[in-house]
UniProtKB/TrEMBL annotation, chain A:
The entry's keywords: Membrane, Transmembrane, Transmembrane helix
Protein name: Cytochrome c oxidase subunit 2A
Transmembrane feature ranges: 20-42
Taxonomic path: Bacteria, Bacillati, Bacillota, Bacilli, Bacillales
Top-level division of the source organism's lineage: Bacteria
Automatic annotation (TrEMBL), chain B:
TM regions (residue ranges): 30-50, 70-90, 106-126, 146-170, 182-209, 229-251, 263-285, 297-320, 346-365, 385-405, 426-448, 468-491, 523-547
Native source species: Neobacillus thermocopriae
Keywords: Electron transport, Membrane, Respiratory chain, Transmembrane, Transmembrane helix, Transport
One MF annotation (Gene Ontology) recorded for this entry: cytochrome-c oxidase activity
Domain of life: Bacteria
Pfam families (alphabetical): COX1
Record-linked InterPro entries: Cyt_c_oxase-like_su1_dom, Cyt_c_oxase-like_su1_sf, Cyt_C_Oxase_1
Record's keyword annotation contains rRNA-binding: no
Stored SUPFAM superfamilies: Cytochrome c oxidase subunit I-like
Protein name: Cytochrome C
Biological process terms in GO annotation: aerobic respiration
PANTHER family, per the entry: CYTOCHROME C OXIDASE SUBUNIT 1 (PTHR10422), CYTOCHROME C OXIDASE SUBUNIT I (PTHR10422:SF40)
Keyword Acetylation: no
Length: 46, 559
């Protein structure tokens, strides 16, 4: 019983953090969009 | 043995009482000044916002640039410096077993020095003799009293740094081989940065004083600007590092979770300390007189600061997901629902973190030489600044007050006050989104910063900014409501809330976490590395500015 508990905890700790990576993807997306907006304006005005 | 006993008694007392009354008094005094500055600076900000939107004409006895200077000094220098010292000293007292008596004396002396300095700074601003904005670099010249005041402010902050170093060193002496508690580690990083960031600006002020007194005819503008921004940009990241201390250490506890990797946290602090000061150059990325190769190096040096921020983003999301899933959260993103959205101590710093996504993105993009040309000296920069400082940093500070003020005052956060905090947070978020959003947009359309309202002789482009500037005014109006609510909340929790015990929320490390390597404690080494990086960044351009100096500029009064 004790060993079952431990292995359950281990499995929980190793669960992939998919939501974290999606959230980090949003951060990357915002950086990219900001780059595109300002780069677009730079190219238009240069 | 006697030392151990005294230490043990102090630590036990701190555990039982939270904080000693003497230490609590220090933090309460500092926070009182900070939030008084917020109230005054907030009203001045409203005047500016309404003027900038073309809705209010300043009375003849009040100059727009005078208001701009006072707004900047009160919120950028006074609010942040006093909040940071009050906050970290409360945390150091709690985690290091109380402040040493000599440290208390030092930080009180620093307080007096800063207050004398602020009075000396404010008098010439009120007389309209120092409308040089908070950046105050030449060739604009203020009344000499303004710079004497700055010397006292800098001395006061240095004393707070020294007090921190003494207290941490004393703890390390008594806890050989142990890691400094993470909160005190953050405090060390912040005060190391403050200590070194003040050196260039002190040199600048000592260049300016003989110039404004008429002892020398001219001043090297480029050298002064460079010295200012070595301080100015570091100050921004000192606020950021202070806010992240709450994100890493406090927020996980509030949501019922544990801290992310202790090693990663300490590496982020070291990285921000080592790489920060050189970031100042991106404020000068389109200045003349700087070699292209040097600018190229500085773009990378500025972008490097983004890495610890991205590590922080991952760490925070991971803490949220892990905690929410333990509480039964499901789905790819459905677990977000399990976070305590009704708790202002979480909501405010969470929105602050979310705001840092566009704020950080703007910072990364505008550090690039060519792209900075699109936004440089436009209202975009003002919007960026309000998003980073006004949202990411200040809203974290607001969130901190809902547990820090009750903690140092021996009172509790009531459900009613929590509700008020939620309302304040929502008002502030809407206000700052409207204001900073409008500033970003008109900046992209070409509206310049650091100017009062003008239609430029009814120029069509300038007139096209007006509808967006109206949003700036609406945002500014909402923000003053937010300021009033926040100041009310702070003083209510300090003096009128029900008495009781409030915890200083410090999250534990995760169970079975890997041991943090001891090299993270080698502050001497990190300071040497920081100085090497600073030398790489500054020696060549400063030498060029001095060797190839143009004729010095006389003092100018442009207002």
């Amino acid at each position: 019983m004790e060993s079952t508990k431990v292995s359950h905890k281990k499995a929980e700790n190793h669960e992939p953090l998919k939501g974290t990576w999606i959230s980090c993807g949003v951060v990357g997306g915002v950086i990219l969009v900001t780059y595109l907006i300002v780069y677009g304006l730079y190219m238009v005005r240069v | 043995m006697a030392t151990i006993t005294a230490k043990t008694i102090r630590e036990t007392a701190n555990k039982a009482l939270g904080i000693s009354p003497e230490d609590a008094k220090i933090s309460k005094t500092y926070l009182t000044v900070a939030f008084s500055a917020l109230l005054l600076g907030g009203f001045l900000g409203l005047l500016q916002g309404l003027n900038r939107a073309g809705l209010l004409e300043m009375p003849s006895w009040l100059n727009y640039y005078q208001v701009l200077t006072a707004h900047g000094v009160l919120l950028i220098l006074v609010l942040t410096a006093f909040f940071i010292i009050g906050y970290f000293y409360a945390g150091m007292s709690h985690t290091l077993g109380g402040l040493l008596p000599k440290v208390r004396k030092i930080v009180w002396t620093g307080f007096v020095s800063k207050m004398i300095g602020i009075v000396l700074v404010v008098i010439p601003i009120l007389m309209n003799e120092a409308s040089v904005m908070y950046t105050f670099y030449p060739p604009m010249a203020a009344h000499p009293m303004f710079y004497f005041g700055l010397v006292f402010v800098a001395l006061g902050i240095w004393l707070a740094c020294v007090g921190c170093f003494i207290n941490v060193a004393n703890w390390r002496k008594n806890h050989k081989g142990q890691h400094v508690p993470i909160f005190a580690y953050f405090a060390t990083g912040v005060f190391v940065l403050l200590f070194f960031a003040l050196i260039p600006v002190a040199i600048e002020v000592f260049m300016i004083i003989p110039w404004v007194l008429g002892w020398v005819d001219g001043i090297n503008v480029m050298v002064s600007r460079t010295l200012f921004w070595a301080f100015g940009h570091t100050l921004v990241n000192i606020w950021y590092l202070s806010a992240t201390s709450a994100w890493y250490v406090v927020v996980p506890k509030i949501i019922g979770g544990r801290r992310w990797s202790d090693t990663l946290t300490r590496v982020v602090i070291i990285a921000l300390v080592v790489m920060n000061i050189t970031g100042g150059f991106h404020h000068q990325i389109i200045d003349p007189g700087i070699d292209e190769g040097i600018k190229y190096m500085h773009v990378f040096m500025s972008l490097a600061i983004g890495f610890p921020s991205l590590m922080t983003a991952y760490a925070m999301f991971a803490v949220f997901e892990r905690t929410a899933r333990k509480k039964g959260g499901k789905g790819l993103l459905g677990w977000y629902k399990k976070l305590p959205w009704g708790d202002v101590r979480f909501l405010a710093p969470f929105i602050a973190m979310a705001a840092f996504i566009p704020a950080g993105a703007g910072g990364i993009v505008q550090s690039t030489n060519q792209l900075d040309q699109v936004v440089h000296n436009t209202m975009w920069i003002v919007g960026h600044f309000h998003l980073t400082l006004g949202m990411s940093v200040v809203m974290t500070f607001f969130g901190i007050t809902y547990w820090l003020v009750p903690f140092i005052s021996g009172r509790v956060l009531t459900p009613k006050m929590n509700k008020l905090g939620i309302i304040q947070t929502i008002i502030w978020t809407i206000g700052m989104t409207l204001m900073a959003g409008a500033m970003h947009w008109v900046g992209l359309l070409g509206s310049p910063r650091r100017t009062s309202y003008s239609t430029y002789f009814d120029n069509a482009t300038a007139l096209s900014w007006d509808p967006y500037l109206f949003f700036l005014a609406i945002g500014g109006t909402l923000l003053i409501i937010g300021v009033i609510l926040q100041v009310y909340a702070v003083f209510n929790m300090m003096f009128f809330a029900p008495k009781g015990e409030t915890e200083f929320p410090l999250a534990e490390e995760e169970e079975g976490a890997a041991k943090t390597p001891y090299w993270t404690e080698r502050w001497g080494l990190w300071i040497v590395v920081m100085l090497i990086v600073v030398s790489m960044a500054y020696v060549i351009p400063l030498t060029e500015f001095i060797v190839n100096a143009p004729p010095g500029s006389p003092p100018l009064k442009t207002w």
